[in-house]
Task: inverse folding
């Protein structure tokens, strides 16, 4: 019996050491992977909202009351966009983010600001009911997505 407990205790110790070892070794790389995954999830959410908005703005779906909800979600992401490109999140997982983001941070910041501004302007008019004004602001918002992707996202 004593012997068996001894063996179990040894196995548990080995397992614990292995678990902690992996945790420490994987620390920074996991953080970068998490940052990349998070950024991609946020971008996918943007894609979802923009797709829904396109259906509403084109009048394919008759639910104007949904416009502010999507617009506010995009604007909230616009205000947080500067946080989703932390240093080091260019590696650690598959990413389409180009190194120039971190090589030319001042240039990149302009693309982030353009998006933040366009998303706030769109949210400001989305509930106003004037479809011409809404469509124009939506067009500007879409351009701010493309403006960043063109220079800072890998083409596939
Ligand atoms: C300031 C730059 C910037 C802006 C603004 C921006 N994006 Fe992105 N987007 C990126 C980058 C960089 C990637 C690649 C992310 C990665 O792979 O790590 C990306 C990826 C994406 C993806 C692919 C996500 C995936 O991995 O499946 C979608 C969809 C997307 N963006 C939609 C949008 C939409 C819609 C907007 C505007 C409402 C927008 N983006 C605004 C930089 C931007």
Result:
């Amino acid at each position: 019996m004593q012997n068996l407990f001894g063996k179990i205790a040894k196995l548990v110790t080995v397992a614990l050491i292995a678990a902690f070892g992996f945790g420490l070794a994987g620390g920074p790389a996991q953080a970068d992977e998490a940052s990349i995954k998070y950024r991609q999830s946020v971008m996918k959410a943007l894609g979802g909202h923009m797709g829904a908005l396109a259906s509403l703005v084109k009048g394919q779906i008759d639910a104007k009351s949904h416009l502010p909800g999507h617009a506010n979600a995009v604007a909230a992401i616009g205000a947080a966009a500067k946080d989703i490109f932390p240093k080091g999140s260019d590696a650690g997982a598959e990413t389409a983010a180009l190194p120039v983001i971190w090589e030319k941070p001042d240039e990149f910041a302009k693309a982030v600001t353009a998006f933040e501004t366009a998303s706030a302007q769109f949210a400001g008019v989305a509930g106003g009911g004037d479809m011409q004004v809404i469509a124009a602001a939506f067009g500007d918002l879409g351009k701010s997505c493309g403006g960043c992707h063109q220079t800072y996202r890998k083409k596939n």
Observations:
- Residues 36, 39-40, 43-44, 46-47, 50, 74, 81, 95-97, 111-112, 115, 144-145, 148-149, 152-153 surround heme C (CB under 6 Å).
- Confidence is low (pLDDT under 50) at residues 13-28.
